[in-house]
């Protein structure tokens, strides 16, 4: 049985990991320790808080479904999402 079907995907993941390490090395070499101050408007903060609340509700619903044994995992959807994410990273 050949397992070459996903070789490109695995090599893409490995290349991405190496690229991230290279970027981290460059950032640490620069040694920049300047402080950056960012101000967020009240409207933007309200949107952020609303988004956090909606996310928290969704997470709580998923947790409850898992505890009740009602959460269904769709492996096809997961694999499609992973492949799409890798393709997006590679610009395909």
Secondary structure topology:
Blueprint lengths: L6 H24 L11 H26 L7 H16 L2
Helix pairs in contact: 1-3
Organism: Alkalibacterium subtropicum
GO biological process, one term: negative regulation of DNA-templated transcription
Family: Belongs to the FlgM family.
Task: Walk me through the structure.
It is a single chain. The protein has 92 residues and is mostly helical. The protein has a domain at 43-91. The protein has helices spanning 7-30, 42-67, 75-90. Helix 1 (7-30) crosses helix 3 (75-90).
Brief rundown of the structure:
With 92 residues, the chain is an all-alpha fold. The chain is built from 3 helices and no strands.
Helical content class: over 70%
Which term fits the overall shape?
flat
H/E series: HHH
The radius of gyration over CA amounts to 20 Å
Tell me about the biggest sheet?
none
Oligomer: single chain
Total strand count, please? Answer: 0
Give the uncertain stretches in residue-range form: none
Number of helices: 3
If you average the pLDDT, what whole number results?
79
Straight-line N-to-C gap: 28 Å
Secondary-structure class: mainly alpha
Proportion of residues in β-strands: under 5%
Give the tags.
92 residues; mainly alpha; 3 helices; Anti-sigma-28_factor_FlgM_sf
